[in-house]
């Protein structure tokens, strides 16, 4: 099937032809839900410690380890998840990681001792790094260069806003988590009280994100990178149909071999984009660090 203009389309043009619509908004919403799950993983321990301190007989050393162990898990698995993403694609590893994160949070709500909770939190960090880094990259394939900047900015705003919201509500949350009710499970082996319910609730965003990710498509950029051009075109056609409401066969780029690798941006534009990204990341880092310092003085 030939198109009217025989000019070969690069990846940027192919993406722009799909439009920016319902598929992109739903993908962004799913990523935002996943971001809430990430924040619960990173900051949730700080909120549960005042209530869990007596329940698990935590010392100052134990509380420090619980706050740090998730970062140890993230560092230990970064290269592994990079290999998995480049081998098996983007969508499936992200979906699996979201699901595992939810399961681990559910398990941590039943932790009978400090050591069990420590191991589970390490495993949470081990799987956390995959969706926390790859979900933005997964969104970018479905966006042009202009809309990709919007996606990145929206993630940064969501990240910093959630940090500030959690920090400002820390005192009220601690009072809520110290409510006196509880349930005895397994003949009293586990006392399921308010902080455990909080950890259970923290699993819901990741579980919902995992469910929603099953409805999305694999990144066509990854499919083309491994030589599956026809499947990449099928993905682009599906996104085109969802965004525009038109028949998939009317997608202008009809030949899989007309979609090439992304064309390189000019050096000035690329440098400007990298400086902008570095600035946003710096602001997000400062916000996260200030949030952690705030919690440490509570």
TrEMBL record:
A Gene Ontology CC term for this entry?
A: membrane
This protein's record includes keyword Transferase: no
Can you tell me where the transmembrane regions are? 65-84, 96-118, 195-217
The Major facilitator superfamily (MFS) profile domain sits at 27-298
Give the Gene Ontology MF terms in alphabetical order.
Answer: transmembrane transporter activity
Key word Cell division present in the record?
no
> What family classification does the UniProt entry report for this protein?
Belongs to the major facilitator superfamily.
The protein's name is Major facilitator superfamily (MFS) profile domain-containing protein
Native organism is Timema poppense
Lineage from the top down? Eukaryota, Metazoa, Ecdysozoa, Arthropoda, Hexapoda
């Amino acid at each position: 099937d030939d198109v009217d203009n025989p000019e070969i389309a690069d990846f940027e043009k192919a993406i722009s032809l799909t439009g920016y619509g319902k598929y992109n908004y739903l993908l962004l919403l799913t990523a935002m839900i996943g971001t809430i799950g990430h924040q619960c993983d990173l900051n949730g321990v700080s909120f549960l410690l005042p209530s869990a301190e007596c329940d698990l007989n935590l010392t100052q050393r134990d509380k420090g380890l619980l706050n740090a162990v998730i970062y140890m898990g993230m560092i230990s698995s970064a290269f592994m998840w990079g290999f998995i993403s480049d081998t098996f694609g983007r969508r499936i590893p992200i979906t699996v990681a979201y699901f595992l994160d939810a399961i681990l949070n559910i398990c941590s709500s039943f932790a009978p001792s400090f050591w069990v909770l420590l191991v589970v939190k390490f495993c949470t960090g081990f799987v956390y790094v995959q969706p926390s880094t790859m979900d933005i990259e997964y969104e970018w394939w479905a966006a042009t260069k202009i809309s990709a900047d919007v996606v990145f900015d929206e993630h940064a705003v969501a990240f910093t806003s959630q940090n500030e919201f959690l920090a400002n509500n820390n005192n009220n949350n601690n009072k809520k988590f110290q409510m006196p009710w509880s349930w005895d499970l397994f003949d009293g082996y586990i006392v399921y009280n308010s902080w455990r319910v909080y950890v259970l609730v923290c699993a819901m965003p990741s579980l919902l994100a995992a469910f929603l990710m099953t409805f999305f498509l694999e990144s066509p950029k990854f499919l083309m990178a491994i030589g599956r051009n026809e499947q990449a075109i099928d993905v682009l056609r599906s996104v085109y149909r969802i965004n525009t409401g038109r028949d998939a066969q009317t997608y202008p780029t009809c030949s899989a071999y007309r979609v090439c690798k992304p064309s390189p941006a000019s050096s000035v534009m690329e440098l400007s984009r990298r400086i902008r990204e570095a600035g946003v990341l710096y602001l997000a880092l400062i916000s996260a660090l200030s949030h952690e310092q705030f919690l440490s003085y509570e």
